[in-house]
Amino acid sequence: MQTALKRLPDAELEVMKALWDAGRPLTRPELDTALRGRNWAATTVLGLLSRLEGKGFLTRQRQGRGYLYAPAVPRETYLAVEGRSALGRMFAGSAKNLVAALHECDALSREEVDELAAYLETLKRGDP
User: Fold this and answer.
1) Considering only CA atoms, which of 61, 86, 85, 63 is closest in space to residue 72?
2) What is the rounded distance in angstroms from the CA atom of residue 94 to the CA atom of residue 85?
3) Any idea which GO molecular function terms this record carries (predicted)?
4) Residue 38 per-residue DSSP state
């Protein structure tokens, strides 16, 4: 796996989400089922799998005439990379700017604000 993970294009991210959601290695036909709303050709899925393997995001293991595909990067690891990337690109690296933008477009309910406040208090105390 690469030491510095890069942000994935949307199509590759959809494949990774399907693998993460499955919680187990999948065959390509099982992956096709998980991606059924995409209507991608088999060659498209195979191309995405090949690129993801080349980038170190997934592994494949021979099983009979096909392969089992499994994430090599945990979802949480990728989310941290994606979060830092979005924060830097769109909010000048400021979490406060992110929350302010969410508030200004009415994307936060009162319950979500309370949830964020409670989480920040947990972080202040040093709890995990």
Assistant:
1) 61
2) 11
3) DNA binding
4) G
Level-2 CATH architecture, domain 10-71 = Orthogonal Bundle (1.10)
- Strands of 35-114, DSSP E: 58-63, 66-71
What does the block give as tokens for 71?
């994430």
Q: Which residues lie across from 70 on neighbouring strands?
A: 59
- Which two three-digit tokens encode residue 48? 């995405």
Buried b (16+ CB within 10 A) or exposed e, 57-72: bbebeeeeeebbbebb
> Structure pTM?
0.78
Q: Is 11 exposed, middle or buried (0-12, 13-18, 19+ CB in 10 A)?
A: middle
**pLDDT tens sequence for the chain (128 residues):** 445 788 899 999 999 999 999 999 999 999 999 999 898 998 999 999 999 999 999 999 999 999 999 999 999 999 998 898 889 989 998 989 988 999 899 999 999 999 999 999 999 998 76
